[in-house]
Amino acid sequence: MSERKRVVVGMSGGVDSSVAAWLLKQQGYDVIGVTMEIWDGTPTEEEDGGCCGLSAVEDARRVAQMLGIPYYVMNFREVFREKVMNYFVREYARGRTPNPCIACNRYVKWDALLHRSLEIGADYIATGHYARVCRLPNGRYAIRRSATAAKDQTYALYNLTQEQLAHTLMPVGDFEKPEIRRMAEEAGLPVAQKKDSQEICFIPDHDYAAFVRKQTEQGSCPGNFVNRAGEVLGRHAGFVHYTVGQRKGLGVTFGKPMFVLEIRPETNDVVLGEADEVWSDHLICHQLNYMSVPELTEERDVTAKIRYSHSGARCRIRCVGPDLVECRFQEPVRAVTPGQAVVFYDGDLILGGGTILRPGTAGDGAWEASTAEYSKEPDVTKRGEEIR
Fold first, then answer.
1. How close are the terminal C-alpha atoms of the chain, in Å?
2. 9: Cα separation from own chain's centroid
3. Does residue 315 have an active-site annotation?
4. Nearest to residue 24, comparing CAs of 110, 146, 130, 128?
5. Rounded distance between C-alpha atoms, residue 133 and residue 103, angstroms
6. Using one digit for the tens of pLDDT, what is the confidence trace for 136-180?
7. Whole-Å CA distances, 196 to 14, 50, 193
8. CB-based contacts of 299, cutoff 8 Å, min separation 6
9. Which DSSP letter does residue 39 get?
10. Is position 319 annotated as part of the catalytic site?
Protein backbone atom coordinates (compact mmCIF):
# COMPACT_ATOMS: atom_id res chain seq x y z
CA MET A 1 0.00 0.00 0.00
CA SER A 2 1.41 3.41 -1.01
CA GLU A 3 -0.24 5.06 1.99
CA ARG A 4 -0.81 3.10 5.17
CA LYS A 5 -4.50 3.32 6.04
CA ARG A 6 -5.77 2.89 9.58
CA VAL A 7 -8.63 0.47 10.21
CA VAL A 8 -10.51 -0.34 13.40
CA VAL A 9 -11.59 -3.98 13.47
CA GLY A 10 -14.62 -4.90 15.57
CA MET A 11 -13.33 -8.01 17.36
CA SER A 12 -15.93 -10.30 18.91
CA GLY A 13 -13.42 -12.87 20.12
CA GLY A 14 -14.54 -15.29 17.39
CA VAL A 15 -12.57 -16.77 14.53
CA ASP A 16 -14.11 -14.62 11.78
CA SER A 17 -13.25 -11.21 13.23
CA SER A 18 -9.85 -12.50 14.38
CA VAL A 19 -8.97 -13.61 10.85
CA ALA A 20 -10.31 -10.30 9.51
CA ALA A 21 -7.76 -8.48 11.69
CA TRP A 22 -5.00 -10.86 10.59
CA LEU A 23 -5.84 -10.46 6.88
CA LEU A 24 -5.86 -6.67 7.09
CA LYS A 25 -2.51 -6.64 8.86
CA GLN A 26 -1.13 -8.93 6.14
CA GLN A 27 -2.41 -6.43 3.56
CA GLY A 28 -0.46 -3.61 5.19
CA TYR A 29 -3.16 -1.74 7.10
CA ASP A 30 -2.52 -0.05 10.44
CA VAL A 31 -4.88 -2.27 12.45
CA ILE A 32 -6.51 -1.47 15.78
CA GLY A 33 -8.66 -4.06 17.54
CA VAL A 34 -11.81 -3.00 19.40
CA THR A 35 -14.43 -4.94 21.33
CA MET A 36 -17.72 -3.16 21.97
CA GLU A 37 -18.87 -3.28 25.59
CA ILE A 38 -22.66 -3.54 25.44
CA TRP A 39 -23.53 -5.84 28.35
CA ASP A 40 -24.56 -4.72 31.85
CA GLY A 41 -22.07 -6.83 33.78
CA THR A 42 -24.39 -9.48 35.20
CA PRO A 43 -22.76 -12.92 35.68
CA THR A 44 -25.09 -14.67 33.21
CA GLU A 45 -24.33 -12.27 30.39
CA GLU A 46 -20.62 -12.22 31.14
CA GLU A 47 -20.40 -15.99 30.94
CA ASP A 48 -22.81 -16.65 28.08
CA GLY A 49 -23.00 -13.37 26.23
CA GLY A 50 -21.65 -14.73 22.95
CA CYS A 51 -20.14 -11.91 20.91
CA CYS A 52 -20.54 -9.40 23.76
CA GLY A 53 -19.72 -11.39 26.91
CA LEU A 54 -16.61 -11.26 29.10
CA SER A 55 -15.06 -14.24 27.28
CA ALA A 56 -15.24 -12.25 24.03
CA VAL A 57 -12.96 -9.60 25.54
CA GLU A 58 -10.51 -12.17 26.85
CA ASP A 59 -10.29 -14.00 23.51
CA ALA A 60 -10.08 -10.80 21.45
CA ARG A 61 -7.33 -9.44 23.70
CA ARG A 62 -5.31 -12.64 23.29
CA VAL A 63 -5.63 -12.49 19.51
CA ALA A 64 -4.65 -8.81 19.40
CA GLN A 65 -1.61 -9.50 21.55
CA MET A 66 -0.57 -12.34 19.25
CA LEU A 67 -1.02 -10.13 16.18
CA GLY A 68 0.87 -7.27 17.82
CA ILE A 69 -1.90 -4.71 17.34
CA PRO A 70 -3.33 -2.16 19.80
CA TYR A 71 -6.54 -3.31 21.48
CA TYR A 72 -9.29 -1.41 23.29
CA VAL A 73 -12.70 -2.03 24.82
CA MET A 74 -15.18 0.73 23.98
CA ASN A 75 -18.36 1.36 25.96
CA PHE A 76 -21.51 1.37 23.80
CA ARG A 77 -23.95 0.28 26.51
CA GLU A 78 -26.22 3.33 26.24
CA VAL A 79 -26.72 3.20 22.47
CA PHE A 80 -27.19 -0.57 22.62
CA ARG A 81 -29.98 -0.22 25.20
CA GLU A 82 -31.71 2.51 23.24
CA LYS A 83 -31.36 1.22 19.68
CA VAL A 84 -31.43 -2.54 20.22
CA MET A 85 -32.90 -3.68 23.55
CA ASN A 86 -35.62 -1.02 23.84
CA TYR A 87 -36.46 -1.47 20.16
CA PHE A 88 -36.74 -5.23 20.71
CA VAL A 89 -39.21 -4.76 23.57
CA ARG A 90 -41.26 -2.13 21.73
CA GLU A 91 -41.70 -4.33 18.68
CA TYR A 92 -42.78 -7.39 20.65
CA ALA A 93 -45.24 -5.21 22.58
CA ARG A 94 -46.72 -4.17 19.22
CA GLY A 95 -47.23 -7.78 18.17
CA ARG A 96 -44.31 -7.83 15.76
CA THR A 97 -41.18 -9.96 15.54
CA PRO A 98 -38.06 -7.77 15.43
CA ASN A 99 -34.55 -8.59 14.27
CA PRO A 100 -32.21 -7.03 16.86
CA CYS A 101 -29.07 -7.97 14.90
CA ILE A 102 -30.08 -5.68 12.03
CA ALA A 103 -30.60 -2.79 14.46
CA CYS A 104 -27.29 -3.55 16.17
CA ASN A 105 -25.45 -3.57 12.86
CA ARG A 106 -26.87 -0.23 11.74
CA TYR A 107 -26.75 1.75 14.97
CA VAL A 108 -24.02 0.13 17.10
CA LYS A 109 -21.51 -1.85 15.04
CA TRP A 110 -21.51 0.77 12.31
CA ASP A 111 -23.00 4.11 13.34
CA ALA A 112 -21.55 4.37 16.86
CA LEU A 113 -18.32 2.45 16.20
CA LEU A 114 -17.64 4.29 12.93
CA HIS A 115 -18.15 7.69 14.57
CA ARG A 116 -15.76 6.78 17.41
CA SER A 117 -13.23 5.31 14.96
CA LEU A 118 -13.17 8.39 12.75
CA GLU A 119 -12.58 10.50 15.86
CA ILE A 120 -9.36 8.58 16.56
CA GLY A 121 -8.10 9.01 13.00
CA ALA A 122 -9.23 5.75 11.39
CA ASP A 123 -10.03 5.58 7.69
CA TYR A 124 -12.17 2.43 7.91
CA ILE A 125 -13.89 0.02 10.22
CA ALA A 126 -13.90 -3.70 9.49
CA THR A 127 -15.82 -6.74 10.68
CA GLY A 128 -15.78 -10.50 10.22
CA HIS A 129 -19.09 -10.61 8.34
CA TYR A 130 -19.47 -12.93 5.37
CA ALA A 131 -20.29 -10.21 2.84
CA ARG A 132 -18.44 -8.00 0.35
CA VAL A 133 -18.51 -4.22 -0.13
CA CYS A 134 -18.18 -2.91 -3.67
CA ARG A 135 -18.48 0.41 -5.47
CA LEU A 136 -20.70 0.38 -8.55
CA PRO A 137 -20.33 2.28 -11.87
CA ASN A 138 -23.11 4.65 -10.73
CA GLY A 139 -20.88 5.70 -7.82
CA ARG A 140 -22.94 4.04 -5.12
CA TYR A 141 -21.67 1.52 -2.60
CA ALA A 142 -23.45 -1.80 -2.23
CA ILE A 143 -23.09 -5.11 -0.47
CA ARG A 144 -22.49 -8.23 -2.55
CA ARG A 145 -23.20 -11.76 -1.40
CA SER A 146 -20.23 -13.57 0.11
CA ALA A 147 -18.29 -16.37 -1.52
CA THR A 148 -20.16 -18.92 0.61
CA ALA A 149 -23.94 -19.18 0.45
CA ALA A 150 -24.01 -21.26 3.63
CA LYS A 151 -22.56 -18.46 5.78
CA ASP A 152 -23.75 -15.41 3.80
CA GLN A 153 -24.69 -12.56 6.18
CA THR A 154 -25.77 -9.88 3.72
CA TYR A 155 -29.43 -10.02 4.80
CA ALA A 156 -28.59 -8.52 8.20
CA LEU A 157 -26.58 -5.70 6.61
CA TYR A 158 -29.13 -4.26 4.16
CA ASN A 159 -29.78 -1.18 6.32
CA LEU A 160 -26.26 0.27 6.19
CA THR A 161 -25.94 3.76 4.74
CA GLN A 162 -23.75 4.96 1.88
CA GLU A 163 -21.47 6.81 4.30
CA GLN A 164 -21.06 3.70 6.44
CA LEU A 165 -20.29 1.50 3.43
CA ALA A 166 -17.72 3.98 2.12
CA HIS A 167 -15.72 3.45 5.33
CA THR A 168 -16.20 -0.33 5.62
CA LEU A 169 -13.96 -3.31 4.87
CA MET A 170 -15.17 -6.93 4.99
CA PRO A 171 -12.14 -9.10 4.18
CA VAL A 172 -13.75 -12.39 5.24
CA GLY A 173 -16.42 -12.24 2.53
CA ASP A 174 -14.10 -13.63 -0.15
CA PHE A 175 -13.62 -16.93 1.69
CA GLU A 176 -15.57 -19.95 2.87
CA LYS A 177 -15.68 -20.92 6.53
CA PRO A 178 -13.25 -23.88 6.30
CA GLU A 179 -10.71 -21.55 4.67
CA ILE A 180 -11.10 -19.06 7.51
CA ARG A 181 -10.49 -21.75 10.13
CA ARG A 182 -7.48 -23.03 8.15
CA MET A 183 -5.98 -19.51 8.02
CA ALA A 184 -6.56 -19.13 11.74
CA GLU A 185 -4.74 -22.40 12.41
CA GLU A 186 -1.83 -21.43 10.18
CA ALA A 187 -1.59 -18.02 11.86
CA GLY A 188 -1.61 -19.69 15.28
CA LEU A 189 -4.73 -17.86 16.46
CA PRO A 190 -6.09 -19.38 19.70
CA VAL A 191 -9.72 -19.11 18.52
CA ALA A 192 -9.29 -21.18 15.34
CA GLN A 193 -11.79 -23.84 16.45
CA LYS A 194 -14.04 -21.67 18.63
CA LYS A 195 -17.75 -22.31 18.03
CA ASP A 196 -19.88 -19.65 16.37
CA SER A 197 -22.26 -17.64 18.55
CA GLN A 198 -25.90 -18.29 17.67
CA GLU A 199 -28.11 -16.73 20.33
CA ILE A 200 -29.29 -13.16 20.79
CA CYS A 201 -26.53 -11.88 23.05
CA PHE A 202 -28.76 -10.19 25.63
CA ILE A 203 -31.15 -13.18 25.85
CA PRO A 204 -28.78 -16.16 26.25
CA ASP A 205 -31.55 -18.49 27.51
CA HIS A 206 -33.66 -17.83 24.35
CA ASP A 207 -36.73 -16.95 26.47
CA TYR A 208 -37.78 -13.83 24.57
CA ALA A 209 -41.19 -13.64 26.20
CA ALA A 210 -39.74 -13.65 29.71
CA PHE A 211 -37.32 -10.88 28.76
CA VAL A 212 -40.15 -8.73 27.37
CA ARG A 213 -42.37 -9.40 30.43
CA LYS A 214 -39.65 -8.01 32.70
CA GLN A 215 -39.86 -4.70 30.86
CA THR A 216 -43.55 -4.29 30.06
CA GLU A 217 -46.98 -5.73 30.74
CA GLN A 218 -48.01 -5.01 27.14
CA GLY A 219 -48.66 -8.32 25.36
CA SER A 220 -48.29 -10.44 28.49
CA CYS A 221 -51.98 -10.71 29.41
CA PRO A 222 -53.87 -13.86 28.36
CA GLY A 223 -56.30 -13.52 25.49
CA ASN A 224 -58.12 -15.48 22.81
CA PHE A 225 -56.95 -17.69 20.00
CA VAL A 226 -59.35 -16.94 17.13
CA ASN A 227 -59.73 -17.96 13.51
CA ARG A 228 -59.95 -15.56 10.57
CA ALA A 229 -63.69 -15.22 11.13
CA GLY A 230 -63.15 -14.14 14.75
CA GLU A 231 -64.49 -17.35 16.31
CA VAL A 232 -62.81 -18.15 19.63
CA LEU A 233 -60.72 -21.34 19.51
CA GLY A 234 -59.09 -21.23 22.95
CA ARG A 235 -56.98 -19.08 25.26
CA HIS A 236 -53.39 -17.93 24.81
CA ALA A 237 -50.81 -16.97 27.43
CA GLY A 238 -50.07 -13.48 26.07
CA PHE A 239 -49.24 -12.60 22.48
CA VAL A 240 -45.53 -11.96 23.18
CA HIS A 241 -45.17 -15.77 23.30
CA TYR A 242 -46.03 -16.18 19.61
CA THR A 243 -44.83 -15.27 16.14
CA VAL A 244 -46.31 -15.70 12.67
CA GLY A 245 -45.83 -19.21 11.31
CA GLN A 246 -45.43 -20.81 14.75
CA ARG A 247 -46.97 -24.26 15.24
CA LYS A 248 -45.32 -25.74 18.34
CA GLY A 249 -45.71 -24.36 21.83
CA LEU A 250 -49.23 -22.98 21.43
CA GLY A 251 -50.28 -24.61 24.71
CA VAL A 252 -53.61 -25.81 23.29
CA THR A 253 -54.48 -29.01 21.41
CA PHE A 254 -56.79 -28.64 18.41
CA GLY A 255 -56.76 -32.16 17.00
CA LYS A 256 -54.91 -30.95 13.89
CA PRO A 257 -51.85 -28.78 13.20
CA MET A 258 -52.63 -25.09 13.68
CA PHE A 259 -50.36 -22.16 12.91
CA VAL A 260 -50.15 -18.53 14.01
CA LEU A 261 -51.38 -16.37 11.13
CA GLU A 262 -51.57 -12.95 12.73
CA ILE A 263 -51.16 -11.14 16.04
CA ARG A 264 -53.70 -8.42 16.85
CA PRO A 265 -52.39 -6.35 19.79
CA GLU A 266 -55.36 -3.96 19.62
CA THR A 267 -57.75 -6.80 20.62
CA ASN A 268 -55.18 -9.09 22.29
CA ASP A 269 -56.14 -11.86 19.82
CA VAL A 270 -53.82 -14.39 18.21
CA VAL A 271 -55.21 -15.61 14.89
CA LEU A 272 -54.72 -19.29 14.05
CA GLY A 273 -55.27 -21.24 10.86
CA GLU A 274 -54.30 -24.38 9.01
CA ALA A 275 -51.11 -24.93 7.03
CA ASP A 276 -52.42 -23.62 3.72
CA GLU A 277 -53.39 -20.30 5.34
CA VAL A 278 -49.78 -19.47 6.32
CA TRP A 279 -48.79 -18.70 2.73
CA SER A 280 -48.92 -15.24 1.12
CA ASP A 281 -48.18 -13.95 -2.36
CA HIS A 282 -47.62 -10.32 -1.39
CA LEU A 283 -46.50 -7.95 1.36
CA ILE A 284 -46.14 -4.26 2.12
CA CYS A 285 -42.94 -2.90 3.64
CA HIS A 286 -41.72 0.50 4.82
CA GLN A 287 -38.69 2.11 6.56
CA LEU A 288 -36.87 1.57 3.28
CA ASN A 289 -33.13 1.76 2.69
CA TYR A 290 -31.79 1.66 -0.85
CA MET A 291 -28.26 0.53 -1.55
CA SER A 292 -27.35 -0.17 -5.20
CA VAL A 293 -29.83 2.47 -6.41
CA PRO A 294 -30.72 5.86 -4.89
CA GLU A 295 -34.47 5.12 -5.00
CA LEU A 296 -37.05 2.87 -6.61
CA THR A 297 -38.36 4.78 -9.63
CA GLU A 298 -40.03 1.94 -11.52
CA GLU A 299 -41.22 -1.62 -11.01
CA ARG A 300 -38.35 -4.08 -10.66
CA ASP A 301 -38.05 -7.85 -10.76
CA VAL A 302 -35.81 -8.95 -7.89
CA THR A 303 -35.17 -11.80 -5.48
CA ALA A 304 -36.44 -11.14 -1.96
CA LYS A 305 -35.54 -12.73 1.37
CA ILE A 306 -38.18 -12.35 4.09
CA ARG A 307 -36.07 -13.75 6.93
CA TYR A 308 -32.43 -14.62 7.57
CA SER A 309 -32.91 -18.34 6.83
CA HIS A 310 -35.08 -17.77 3.74
CA SER A 311 -33.39 -18.85 0.51
CA GLY A 312 -35.11 -16.07 -1.45
CA ALA A 313 -38.04 -15.89 -3.87
CA ARG A 314 -38.58 -14.09 -7.17
CA CYS A 315 -40.94 -11.14 -6.99
CA ARG A 316 -41.84 -7.76 -8.47
CA ILE A 317 -41.57 -4.63 -6.33
CA ARG A 318 -43.12 -1.18 -6.81
CA CYS A 319 -43.71 1.98 -4.80
CA VAL A 320 -47.28 2.35 -3.57
CA GLY A 321 -46.87 5.43 -1.39
CA PRO A 322 -44.31 7.52 0.48
CA ASP A 323 -41.82 5.08 2.04
CA LEU A 324 -44.05 2.15 1.05
CA VAL A 325 -43.22 -0.69 -1.33
CA GLU A 326 -45.43 -3.57 -2.44
CA CYS A 327 -43.76 -6.89 -3.11
CA ARG A 328 -45.63 -9.53 -5.16
CA PHE A 329 -44.13 -13.00 -5.30
CA GLN A 330 -44.24 -15.29 -8.31
CA GLU A 331 -45.01 -18.16 -5.94
CA PRO A 332 -46.49 -17.87 -2.43
CA VAL A 333 -44.04 -17.64 0.47
CA ARG A 334 -44.54 -18.97 3.98
CA ALA A 335 -45.08 -16.86 7.10
CA VAL A 336 -44.69 -13.23 6.07
CA THR A 337 -43.91 -11.78 9.50
CA PRO A 338 -44.51 -8.12 10.46
CA GLY A 339 -41.40 -6.59 12.02
CA GLN A 340 -38.96 -8.74 10.08
CA ALA A 341 -36.88 -7.35 7.23
CA VAL A 342 -37.47 -8.02 3.55
CA VAL A 343 -34.28 -7.60 1.53
CA PHE A 344 -34.25 -7.18 -2.25
CA TYR A 345 -31.39 -8.62 -4.32
CA ASP A 346 -30.50 -7.73 -7.90
CA GLY A 347 -28.35 -10.74 -8.69
CA ASP A 348 -25.67 -10.86 -5.97
CA LEU A 349 -26.13 -7.20 -5.02
CA ILE A 350 -28.44 -5.77 -2.40
CA LEU A 351 -30.77 -3.33 -4.13
CA GLY A 352 -32.41 -2.34 -0.85
CA GLY A 353 -34.89 -3.49 1.73
CA GLY A 354 -37.34 -2.49 4.41
CA THR A 355 -39.41 -3.60 7.39
CA ILE A 356 -42.43 -5.81 6.72
CA LEU A 357 -45.70 -4.14 7.73
CA ARG A 358 -48.04 -7.00 6.82
CA PRO A 359 -49.36 -9.07 3.95
CA GLY A 360 -51.63 -6.75 1.96
CA THR A 361 -52.31 -5.15 -1.39
CA ALA A 362 -52.19 -1.51 -2.39
CA GLY A 363 -55.67 -0.07 -2.84
CA ASP A 364 -57.46 -2.28 -0.32
CA GLY A 365 -56.75 0.06 2.59
CA ALA A 366 -54.56 -2.49 4.36
CA TRP A 367 -51.29 -0.63 4.00
CA GLU A 368 -52.77 2.76 4.94
CA ALA A 369 -54.16 1.28 8.16
CA SER A 370 -50.92 -0.56 8.85
CA THR A 371 -48.84 2.60 8.49
CA ALA A 372 -51.07 4.55 10.89
CA GLU A 373 -51.03 1.73 13.43
CA TYR A 374 -47.26 1.29 13.17
CA SER A 375 -46.62 4.94 14.05
CA LYS A 376 -48.29 4.59 17.45
CA GLU A 377 -45.98 4.51 20.45
CA PRO A 378 -47.44 2.17 23.11
CA ASP A 379 -46.46 2.36 26.76
CA VAL A 380 -44.12 -0.60 26.80
CA THR A 381 -42.68 -0.26 30.29
CA LYS A 382 -44.24 -1.04 33.64
CA ARG A 383 -43.23 2.26 35.22
CA GLY A 384 -42.79 4.42 32.15
CA GLU A 385 -39.03 3.85 32.11
CA GLU A 386 -36.71 2.46 29.48
CA ILE A 387 -34.57 -0.62 30.03
CA ARG A 388 -31.86 -0.11 32.61
1. 46
2. 20
3. no
4. 128
5. 19
6. 999 999 999 999 988 999 999 999 999 999 999 999 999 999 999
7. 7, 8, 9
8. 316, 317, 318
9. S
10. no
